[in-house]
Amino acid sequence: MLENLQSLIPPLDWQQVVVDPWSNSQWVESMWVTGMGVMVAWACGLVGCFLILRRMAMVGDAVSHTILPGLVIAFLVSGSRSGWVMFVGAVVAGVFTIWLIELVHSRSLIKQDAAIGICFSALFALGVLLVSRYADKVDLDQDCVLYGEIGQIYWSPSVAGVPEPAFSMAIILVLVVLLLAAFYRRLTVTTFDPGLARSLGISTARYHYGLMTVLALVVVAAFKAVGAVMVVAMLIVPGSTAYLLAKRLPTMLGLTLVHGLVSSVIGFHLGQWLNCSTGAAMVTAGVGLFFLTWLATRITRLVQRHASRHHHDAMDNDHTTFTRPKGSEPDPHPVRGATR
User: Fold this and answer.
1) Domain 24-230 CATH (choose: 3.10.180.10, 3.40.50.2000, 3.30.2130.10, 1.10.3470.10)
2) Contact 277, 226 (CB under 8 A)
3) pTM of the predicted structure, to 2 decimals
């Protein structure tokens, strides 16, 4: 059994896995692949922080899967597989998904998690139906839809000397950072205390739909890199890891960026070692960091709880009392409140 397990895991060749990808002949391709992973993790992670705090993490799952009918309809309407045409179709499908979830949730007794499940499964089934019905006209790679093709980013058509997926992802990342910087205070108050926001005259619905629109843009831009399945982890895992360590939102956002950078670099080399999907390896590295962080915080809390309990037990067992000796006079020092 041990021999079978060893045959599944290739031996680690440090030169081949770590050094060669950054050699003179391969470093440009490695840079684009790793850089794309970092941009996806940063854009998804920043938006994901607010989704986690709003308890809406699974909305990203719904949007990532309902992109499929948007892609098919955009192709059937335009007859073109142009990247921007497909991008617009997918964004429209994502925004429609969010609007439909809110409609079902607000106009019925259905709770939000059930509304997400209904809309997500219905629209994804519609996408599968369209693909199967028009399979001869729609050329979609199922592996690309599920797992992405981040490892092939370098060979994509370029825009101004930059691979098209990386170019669009960079624009979305800059847009996310600018919007978060511009509306940070209002987003914060609508996230933590919607009642206070409404009393201050802030439209919570406007910022909610604005955040959901940005979510749709991020998911669509990251779709080609990591696929429909992996983008959900990119939305949730970095922010969840930061949430375990941070007590303030700025710290949480900063730790999210650190997690995205580290998981992308480790995941790239993990993919080189196992000769597997680079996007899946990056997500696996991110999840590994999450569990290490969770384990470390859990151990720290257990140690602190044990130390606190030991301290209280020692105080309870200490019956020593301090009494002033008979005939002692108060300290006449003026600083301590006594008279000279």
Assistant:
1) 1.10.3470.10
2) no
3) 0.82
